[in-house]
User: What shape does this take?
Amino acid sequence: MDAFQSQHQKLKKRLTQDQVRVLETSFDHRKKLEPEAKLQLARELGVPARQVAIWYQNKRARWKTQSLELDYNVIRVRLEHALIEKRRLERDVMRLQGELEKAHEMLHAFNYANFNPTPIVSNAPGSSDEGGSSTEDNHEDLEFEQLYAALMGVDEANRG
Assistant: This one.
């Protein structure tokens, strides 16, 4: 060890808790010191201006690291929430695709029933070929109600 290093170590003193508290308060107000403020703070604390400058430099490095860690944690939490929302939306899409498939099947059945009607032959008095039968109309109404209910997401058991 040369003479300069040993002399420098003798001159350098650890800061007291009160000095650190003053430096922390100063750092909270401004993250970077102007030369005049550095000299004033050094005089107030009774330490070399170089020691104040080094303390500020180290504090800024720690502060930046802490800020990055906080930012990382915020982003990580946001990502977790976004992934939860994504999974929820994927489940909704699957459910809606199932409902859409069911509606397509009902629509296909409805169209098949309308374009390929089963002939109902009735010799009952009051029925005519021109107007169709009331049984046929009721059947079509029921199919339409079922189709509408499926499209609207109404369960058969909930219908009155």
Q: What stands out?
A: The longest helix spans residues 49-115. The mean pLDDT is 80. The CA atoms of residues 127 and 133 lie 6 Å apart.
